[in-house]
Specification:
Layout (H helix, E strand, L loop, with lengths): L1 E10 L2 E10 L2 E6 L3 E4 H7 L11 E4 L12 H5 L8 E5 L2 E8 L1 H7 L9
Antiparallel strand pairs: 1-2, 2-3, 2-4, 5-6, 6-7
């Protein structure tokens, strides 16, 4: 019975991914040529695309409003929270809220009129 094993060896700035077969009797000696990836390529390979299948509940941010939520550092550096940003919440847990920056909101969301789908 053969089993497949993936070994990741980190080098400075590079990731070496080596795949080889292991049998119950030990290393079979049959391996693949190692593949080299840049560290950035390796990190990005973990990201996958997902499509949202639920509705989002949001409201506009009001100027001067005190928010009790984490705002990502990059959004904060871009001036958020600001007018045009939206506050999203989990429909099943209204205490779970997060900031949606204006440009991301404009590009990815459309208001549903009269709660019709």
């Amino acid at each position: 019975m053969l089993k497949r094993c993936m070994v990741r060896i980190l080098f400075v700035g590079m990731v070496k991914v080596v795949s080889y077969k292991i049998s119950n009797l030990g290393f079979s000696g049959q391996g693949r040529v190692p593949t080299l990836y840049s560290l950035e390529e390796y990190k990005m390979s973990k990201w996958k695309k997902y499509k949202k299948i639920v509705l989002a509940e949001m409201r506009p941010y009001e100027e001067g409003e005190v928010l009790k939520m984490h705002i990502p550092e990059i959004a904060f550096k871009d001036g958020s929270p600001k007018i045009g940003d939206m506050i999203a919440r989990n429909p099943k847990n209204h205490n779970s809220q997060w900031l949606v920056e204006k440009q991301y909101y404009i590009e990815n969301f459309k208001e549903i009129e009269n709660d019709s789908i």
